[in-house]
């Protein structure tokens, strides 16, 4: 009795999903590079995008959801073929560890204040200095923001240098 289960179909679906992930990464990287031509702006993003992630992880830390998000992103990165994926994975682990440590010593209210301050600084540097003064363009997310771009943001910032 087989119940109509076809292993070949599952393999085809798995292969298609993998190709979609790899093509999606290449598309996001080309898009990111188009909006980040200035080397100073690229370095601002290398520094500030991880700060943004720290801000988000601090919001999730009181509920212990920062672990789930970090493990999910790391699993996704492991599938990709980027020379910078292990640096980005290390960065995510470090940020998660910082969020975990801070969540043990600060109240949820303090974590939310920290998160807000971190986000304000990171966005001000990226948009105010990086895009407005250095690039003279709008950030790419104002044109085309995808979930893939958000999940890949640290990797894209690290991988933008040729």
Topology (SSEs and partners):
Blueprint: H1 7-35, H2 39-60, H3 66-79, H4 85-105, H5 108-135, H6 147-151, H7 153-159
Helix pairs in contact: 2-4, 2-5, 2-7, 3-4, 4-7
Short description:
It is built from seven helices and no strands.
Termini, distance in Å?
A: 55 Å
Overall SS class: mainly alpha
Give helix and strand order, one letter per element, not per position.
Answer: HHHHHHH
Enumerate the spans where pLDDT stays under 50 for 5 or more consecutive residues: none
Please work out how many helical segments DSSP would assign.
7
Residues in helix, %: over 70%
Count of separate structural domains: 1
Mean pLDDT across all residues, rounded? 86
Query: Beta-strand level of the residues, as a percent range?
Result: under 5%
Total beta strand runs: 0
Radius of gyration, whole Å = 18 Å
- Major sheet details: none
What is the approximate shape? globular
Any overview of this molecule?
By secondary structure, this protein is mostly helical. It has one domain (8-159). Helices cover 78% and strands 0% of the residues. It contains seven helices and no strands. The protein has helices at residues 7-35, 39-60, 66-79, 85-105, 108-135, 147-151, 153-159. Helix 4 packs across helix 7. The relative contact order is 0.18.
Properties at a glance:
single chain, 162 residues, mainly alpha, 7 helices, 78% helix, globular
């Amino acid at each position: 009795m087989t119940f109509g289960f076809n292993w070949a179909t599952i393999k085809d679906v798995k292969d298609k999903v993998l190709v979609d992930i790899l093509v999606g990464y290449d598309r996001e990287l080309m898009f990111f590079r188009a909006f980040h031509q200035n080397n100073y702006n690229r370095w601002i993003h290398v520094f500030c995008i991880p700060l943004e992630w720290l801000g988000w992880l601090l919001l999730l830390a009181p509920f212990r959801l920062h672990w789930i998000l970090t493990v999910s992103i790391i699993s996704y990165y492991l599938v990709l073929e980027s020379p910078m994926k292990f640096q980005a994975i290390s960065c995510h682990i470090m940020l998660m560890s910082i969020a975990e440590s801070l969540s043990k010593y600060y109240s949820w209210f303090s974590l939310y204040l920290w998160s807000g301050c971190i986000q304000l600084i990171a966005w001000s540097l990226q948009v105010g200095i990086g895009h407005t003064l250095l690039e003279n363009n709008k950030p790419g997310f104002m044109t085309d923001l995808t979930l893939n771009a958000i999940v890949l943001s640290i990797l894209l910032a690290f991988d933008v240098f040729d």
